[in-house]
Amino acid sequence: MNFEHLRYFLVLSRLEHYGAAAEELSISQPGLSHAISSLEDELGVPLFRKKGRNITLNQYGRLLQNDAEKIISLVDKCTDSFSNILEGGGALHLAGITRLASHLLPNLVREYKTDTDCCANFHFYTGNTPDVLQGVRDGRYDIGFCFRSDWKNDIEAFPYSKQEMSVIVHPEHPLASQTAVSLMDTLPYPQIIFSTKSALRPSMDEFFEQIHRYPKVAYEVEQDELIAEMVSCGFGIAVMPKFPNVERHGLVAIPITEPHWENIFFMIRRKEDFHSPLEIDFWEYCKKKHPYRE
Fold this sequence. Notes:
Blueprint (H helix, E strand, L loop, with lengths): L2 H13 L2 H8 L3 H15 L4 E4 L2 E4 L1 H28 L4 E7 H19 L4 E7 L1 H10 L4 E5 L7 E15 L11 E2 L8 E4 L6 H9 L7 E5 L2 H9 L5 E4 L10 E7 L3 E9 L6 H13 L5
Parallel strand pairs: 3-4, 3-5, 7-11, 8-9
Antiparallel strand pairs: 1-2, 5-12, 6-10, 6-11, 6-12
Helix pairs in contact: 1-2, 1-3, 1-4, 2-3
C-alpha cells in the first residue's frame, strides 16, 4: 500500500472536495483522482460517494479513515525518530565492567551532555569483560568499556585509561600503615585472588610470575566488589587494580611499586558497522577528553 496515497485519502476525506484537496497537496486534480482510484482498486471497494458538487466518505471510507490515521501517524513517528538519529539524537547504549558502570560512565556522560548540550538518551549496562565484549559484538551495546580481551578484526579498541596495582587490606592489617609496598611484601598473608572466570586473572598471574612466586590463595572470586567485601570481613588481602570508591568498603589501598604493573581500560565498538552521528560524536569526545597517555 502506498503511504502517499493514504495521505492523499486523509486530506480528501477532510476537505471532501477534489479541487481543494489537490490544491492543499500541491498536486494536479487528475493526479489526485488517479491516486484515489488506485487505492480503491487495491482495496476492492469504493471509498467515497458523491454529495452534490462535493464528495463524502462512505462506510468503507470511514473504516479506512481510522486505520489510515494510525498508519500515517506511526510512519511519521518512525521517520521523525530516524531523522533525529541522523541529526545526532536518539539513544546510545553503553556497557562497562561494574566498577566503570557505577562510577566512570555516569560522570563521563554527565560531562559530555554538559559540554555539548546533548539531549539524547543514554542507557547503561554492566557485566564482566566477556559480557561487555559479546554484547558489543551482538549489537546490544554501541560502545563498551572493559579490559583487554580476545577481540579480533571485528572490534575497534581504543586505550581509554590505566590503573596502577595496589594491595587492598583491612585498616587493622599490618600493611595498612605502609604508604607503598612491593609485591614480595604481600606474600606472607593469605590472599583472595580473581578466579579463572575473570578477565583479570591472566594479568594477575603474569604479575606474580615477575617475582617467580605465587601467593597463599585463600579464596578465588570473580568480581572485585565481592573481593573487597571479603577483605573487609577479614578473609584475607587482595592484590588488584585500585577501583573507584574502594574507601567506601572501609579498606585501605596501598600502591605496589615493585614490580611495575598497570592495567588498561579499553573503549570498544564494532568496526565494520554503521555508527550513528551520536555514537561518533561521543566516541571522539571520549578520545579527546580523556586521551590515553603512556
